[in-house]
Automatic annotation (TrEMBL):
Organism (species): Streptomyces sulfonofaciens
Top-rank lineage group of the source organism: Bacteria
UniProt protein name: Short-chain dehydrogenase
UniProt cross-references to Pfam families, sorted A to Z: adh_short_C2
Homology family: Belongs to the short-chain dehydrogenases/reductases (SDR) family.
PANTHER family (UniProt xref): DIHYDROANTICAPSIN 7-DEHYDROGENASE (PTHR43477:SF1)
KW Oxidoreductase (keyword) present: yes
A GO term for molecular function: oxidoreductase activity
UniProt keyword annotations, A-Z: Oxidoreductase
Length: 241
């Protein structure tokens, strides 16, 4: 397997897409470090992973935390950035500017800090994989800030692919995916929302975290792909075009 024996760091690896990616990479023979700002979730995630995995508490809003993480890891082969937080739709007019800035802290600036401190440690043939979202190209009312953060991540991906070459930099653009980020939504509303979102796709389904993990692994393994934003959305963007 292409990832066997490689060192992979998954930021946001304690749940959802990040945990699924860590699990898939470990199954492919990689040594995986997962990082999360939540120590409790980190311990719970490690209990689900093989002994070849380790964890580190790191808050991507704190550059010193990010720097310390990569000082600890040392040389590595791939970094996957999946850290994010729950974003509730809200009109811009009702959103305090401080809250708007905070939305970018984890989703965009955390990715910037991660690449800044990881890039020089990536071994030849290695890569960095970021995560955006279909909201970048198909926003709904109340999601302007989330769309801005996702679009900024995609621009960052292309710019870094040119700047950091031959280190490869790509991004996955997920559509609607079942992850713990949806947990704050009460179950009846969540089920109705998933049904609506599934109906808007060509596959008439909601994605699973394992399907996003497969996209992350593809981008790590394929050495001829860089500067690419890979859409994994069941055809939702196409269905809405």
């Amino acid at each position: 397997m292409a990832l066997s024996g490689q060192r992979i760091v998954v930021i946001g690896g304690s749940s959802g897409m990040g945990l699924a990616t860590a699990r898939a990479a470990a199954a492919a023979g990689a040594a995986v470090t997962i990082a999360s700002s939540d120590e409790g979730r980190l311990k719970a995630a490690l209990a689900q992973l093989p002994d070849t995995c380790e964890g580190a508490v790191a808050d991507t809003r704190d550059e010193a935390d990010v720097a310390a993480l990569f000082d600890h890891v040392g040389e590595l082969d791939h970094v996957v950035y999946t850290a994010g937080d729950t974003v509730r739709p809200q009109p811009l007019a009702d959103l305090p500017l401080d809250a708007a800035r905070e939305l970018f802290e984890v989703r965009f600036w955390g990715a910037v800090a991660t690449v800044k401190h990881a890039a020089r440690r990536v071994r030849p043939g290695g890569s960095i994989v970021l995560t955006s979202g279909t909201v970048a190209v198909r926003p709904a009312p109340g999601t302007a800030l989330a769309a801005g953060a996702a679009a900024a991540t995609e621009g960052l991906t292309r710019g870094l692919a040119a700047e950091l070459a031959p280190v490869r930099v790509n991004a996955v653009r997920p559509g609607a995916v079942r992850t713990p980020l949806w947990d704050p939504v009460p179950e009846p509303q969540r089920a109705a929302l998933f049904a609506t979102l599934a109906d808007r796709t060509l596959t008439k389904s909601i994605g699973g975290a394992d399907e996003i993990a497969a996209a992350h692994l593809y981008l790590m393994e394929n050495r001829f792909v860089t500067g690419t934003v890979l859409t994994v959305d069941g055809g939702a963007v196409l269905a809405g075009s």
